Recover the amino acids of this structure.
């Protein structure tokens, strides 16, 4: 009887510890907010992707916003490409502004080309 109670108490303590670390990991539901936004917008960014972006110090809002705009503009781009561009110091808004109109005009433009044009424009 006593052994069973000790096991139950330890199980509760363990569960609370795991929940605490998950809460700290998710960052006060900041990541969950972006996950919900991606689900509502019907863009495929998984919760683990968002968690790892946060570990890598990526601005989730910037990446999610750009990815939603590009997806809704029917521009085929991977979220990892946006993440890499952000980490390289490129302005995702400029890249998005270049890709969406190009797609609407029927011009074939890759994200790398948009990054290059954005970099040239910012150096001028």
């Amino acid at each position: 009887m006593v052994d069973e109670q000790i096991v139950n108490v330890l199980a509760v303590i363990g569960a609370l510890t795991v929940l605490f670390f998950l809460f700290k990991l998710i960052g006060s539901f900041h990541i969950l907010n972006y996950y919900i936004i991606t689900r509502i917008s019907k863009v495929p960014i998984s919760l683990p992707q968002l968690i790892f972006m946060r570990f890598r110090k990526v601005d989730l809002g910037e990446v999610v916003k750009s990815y939603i705009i590009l997806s809704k503009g029917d521009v085929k781009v991977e979220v990892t490409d946006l993440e890499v561009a952000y980490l390289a110091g490129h302005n995702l808004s400029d890249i998005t502004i270049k890709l969406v109109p190009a797609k609407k005009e029927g011009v074939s433009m890759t994200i790398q080309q948009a990054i290059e044009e954005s970099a040239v424009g910012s150096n001028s």
Observations:
- The radius of gyration is 20 Å.
